[in-house]
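Exercise: predict the fold of this chain.
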Amino acid sequence: MRSHSRNDVVIVDSGGANIASLRGAIERLGARTRLSADGSVIASADRVVLPGVGAAPHAMERLRTAGLTNVLRTLTQPVLGVCLGMQLLFARSEEGSTPCLGILPSAVLRLQSLPGRPVPHMGWNQLRRLKADPLLEGIEDGAHAYFVHSYAAAVTEHTLATAEYGLALCAAVRRGNFWGTQFHPERSAATGVRVLRNFLGQ
């Protein structure tokens, strides 16, 4: 990922409330961003970001209405899903029993509220690295990242890093050219900056 620096990043217009801050974080690193729901624009981008804050049923309906589900599944350039955008990469979400993109084979489940662990999981949490990967280059085990979510994916063979919230959750994931972070890199200070730099190949 680091050997081919590209500055054309298309952010999929999936209706996420974090789009403005995510665009700002990427543009501060010198990349050009475009917000688009046009399949041809997305397919021709050097890099694609699938953001998301909100509900999986609503986000998937927006993608289906825009004719983007097959476009996203067949992308060959680097793709980064952020928060709900990461969850949409999985086969389905327990939120509304929603079929998702199916790039990752497992399901996203609702977090269980327990004493001292309210849902949503909101705030800073430590990352535990499971695998070396270009997306996490330069990020130390135990680095902090910022989370806001009520659903999470279990740890699988595709998990790059976990976070603990009563149990280990998938915090970063990869399958082929598709990466995802459950945390928000645009709100995760130095850790998030490094993740975005790595994704941009800088």
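Check your answer against the key: The longest helix spans residues 189-200.
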